[in-house]
Amino acid sequence: MWDQMNNVGLRSNYIAAWHAAKVMVPAKQGLIVNVSSPGGLRYLFNVAYGVGKAANDRMAADMAVELKKQNVACVSLWPGAVMTEHVNDFLSQPQDEISSKAAAILKDAEDPTFSGKAVAWLAADADIMKKSGRILLTAELGREYGFKDVGGVEPLSFRQVKKLVSFEYPSVSWMIPEFVYVPRWLMAASSHKF
């Protein structure tokens, strides 16, 4: 697992970014996108996954510093749960008590094309350098730029209280308005242990 996440996944992201930067720096423009997840902030799945995602987020932030003078942006993109082939296969299996909770979380998963739309809109953004070095959530980019998922769906952000409550208390989440968000500073502050 460590080798897949870090020796292959993380290292491949770095090597791809290095090659991309070799083209973007002389052109004085470009966008590098690392795909990550909330697993970079809090435990999710396993140690290797969390280390890889935290490193992807940090790599985007550090590359943004080094590439800023060359007008090359670098961001870390957090999709919501994505309806990959693996997730689709999982949801088609008989559900036991543990996996039925996971199925409830995954039922609103984003189509894989939603992340692609986010990247396309970021690449077309004339002010992309203002976002460089940041973690960006696909659902929030959809609202900002005005694009939707397949079927006209507007996925909820990990920062929306409605979504967070729906994980544990789905029967009451309908009462929470969609405009209530967990502040970014609180997410960042709650992730560090001193």
How is this structure best summarized?
By secondary structure, the protein is mostly helical.
Describe the overall structure.
- By secondary structure, the protein is mostly helical.
- The protein contains eight helices and three strands.
- The chain has helices at 2-27, 47-67, 85-91, 97-106, 112-124, 138-145, 161-168, 184-190, and strands at 30-35, 72-78, 135-137.
- A three-stranded parallel β-sheet has the order 1-2-3, with helices on both faces.
- The longest helix is centred in the N-terminal third of the chain and has 26 residues, at 2-27.
- It is globular and about 55 Å long.
- Pfam families: adh_short.
- This is Dehydrogenase/reductase SDR family member 1.
- InterPro entries: NAD(P)-bd_dom_sf, SDR_fam.
Mean pLDDT: 89
- Global outline: globular
Quick one: how many beta strands?
3
Number of helices: 8
Distance between the termini: 28 Å
Q: Give the uncertain stretches in residue-range form.
A: none
Largest sheet, strands/sense/barrel? 3 strands, parallel
Q: Which strand order do you get reading across the main beta sheet?
A: 1-2-3
